[in-house]
């Protein structure tokens, strides 16, 4: 049975030096020290991924714990092809999506219609979205659009893959991604406008 380890500072920068073959082998033998080592190594960045799909840190931590249960349960399927972190990340993403689907607090916002979004302006490619600022804006989107935007823009899933994951049509994924992106740009434009007004007010006096 998997122990529930506390979330500690991760050793993500040391990945290149880790002996993953040895670590995975020891985890498959259910050695507690190896399980804790793997958890400590990836818990930090994976918590960030889980938080990106949820609306609270408590939910993100629930997803993380559920995700790691799946990681250890399916670790025998890891063939040492590609990075171990990438393999774990995919499990966390699918775990987060399943969590949203079965959690009543998110179900109403996992309906993909245009009702949740306001009208958006035309796209403006010249507007740059900073990583931290964009992450905060994405979290303000309804859960369904937040999920599609993250899957496509951040994780790199195609709209066909997103459709399969969410049980929606490819075209629905494309249209909702476009509308979510447009809404984010609208918000950023407004935010930039407010900042300019505030700066002007300060310099005027």
Description:
Helix 2 (32-53) crosses helix 4 and helix 8 crosses helix 9. 65% of the residues lie in helices and 0% in strands. With 205 residues, the chain is an all-alpha fold. It has 9 helices and no strands. The relative contact order is 0.09.
**How many individual helices?**
9
Question: What can be said about the biggest beta sheet?
Answer: none
Structural class by secondary-structure content: mainly alpha
Given the C-alpha coordinates, what overall shape results?
Answer: elongated
Cα distance spanning the termini:
65 Å
Short description:
This protein has 205 residues and is mainly α. The protein is 65% helix and 0% strand. The protein has helices at 20-28, 32-53, 57-73, 84-102, 104-107, 131-138, 143-154, 159-166, 170-204.
Topology of this structure?
Blueprint: H1 20-28, H2 32-53, H3 57-73, H4 84-102, H5 104-107, H6 131-138, H7 143-154, H8 159-166, H9 170-204
Helix pairs in contact: 1-2, 2-3, 2-4, 3-4, 7-9, 8-9
Descriptive labels:
mainly alpha, 0% strand, 205 residues, disordered C terminus, disordered N terminus, 9 helices
